[in-house]
Specification:
This protein is of the alpha/beta class and 279 residues long. The protein is 48% helix and 15% strand.
Length: 279
């Protein structure tokens, strides 16, 4: 397998850090980025000139431009972009705080969009490359308390589907990664919750927030194996558009497909009644 040059966002913890460790360990080169790059210096130092650390807050356009330019100047190209930076925001819809909602979208959605656009010209010129967008099972289906997070991941899903169709003829591949519950900081230290609490949502959104806090650290998903699965998909000659990660993601996604089909079938007659009458 020829050496790849990876550009990974959100490398401080979770999937980003584990993925960085594994691609470097196997001999690839990597651009490690984070808002606090000091957390990555020790990891990069173990791999000499195969790794560089760049500061990157994906909510800042100038920082994105600078990081991509520096990465391409240092390694000559970017083969695999992993848009991993992102976080969850917990609140009932009515409890949502505008500033927090917009901050999450700047990270989960607009930062991903912007970074993808900056990397595409180089990939397009070489007629090769792979863009990996880390979504979530929550990009396919929704639960109480994470409506705004789901909205951000649904946005990533639609963007990625269109992107995949546009760049396939140019030799560029796109994979959407959809993890279920993994033992990362997502529902722990990185968990952001609304300061507003409305009693009427205690049994829906409130119960889900409590459950998420209680299962943090007990999830079935192993980030080490999850990162390895992403690498396997990237190495494939025909990588998937969507890669579910975790047994829970697989089972819940299939159940959701069944529920969608039942909903569509139950209302089929009304759906079909809206066409112009056939002559």
């Amino acid at each position: 397998m020829s050496e790849k040059i990876w550009f990974i966002t959100g490398c401080s913890t979770g999937f980003g850090r584990e993925l960085a460790q594994q691609v470097l360990k196997r001999g690839d080169r990597a651009v490690l980025t984070a808002r606090m790059p000091s957390r990555l210096e020790e990891l990069a130092a173990k791999h000499g000139d195969k790794a560089i650390v760049l500061p990157l807050d994906v909510t800042h356009e100038a920082a994105i431009t600078r990081a991509v330019s520096n990465a391409e100047a240092h390694f000559g190209r970017i083969d695999v972009l992993v848009n991993n930076a992102g976080y969850g925001y917990f609140s009932a819809i009515e409890e949502g705080e505008d500033a927090e909602i917009r901050r999450q979208f700047e990270t989960n959605v607009f930062g991903l969009y912007s970074l993808t656009r900056k990397v595409l010209p180089g990939m397009r010129a070489r007629r090769s490359g792979h863009i990996v967008n880390v979504s979530s099972l929550g990009g396919l289906m929704a639960y109480p308390a994470t409506g705004y997070y789901h909205a951000s991941k649904f946005a990533v899903e639609g963007f990625s589907e269109s992107l995949a169709m546009e760049v396939a003829p140019l030799g560029i591949k796109v994979t959407i990664v959809e993890p279920g519950r993994f033992r990362t900081d997502w529902a722990g230290r990185s968990m952001v919750t609304s300061k507003t609490r409305i009693d009427d949502y205690a049994e829906t959104a409130g119960a889900r927030i409590k459950a998420a806090q209680e299962y943090s650290g007990k999830q079935a998903g192993d980030p080490v194996r999850g990162a390895a699965a992403i690498i396997t998909a990237v190495d494939s000659s025909e990588p998937p558009l969507r890669l579910l990660l975790g047994s829970d993601a697989y089972q819940l996604a299939l159940s959701h497909l069944d529920a969608l089909r039942k909903n569509f079938d139950d209302w089929k007659d009304l759906t079909l009644s809206t066409d112009f009458p056939q002559d």
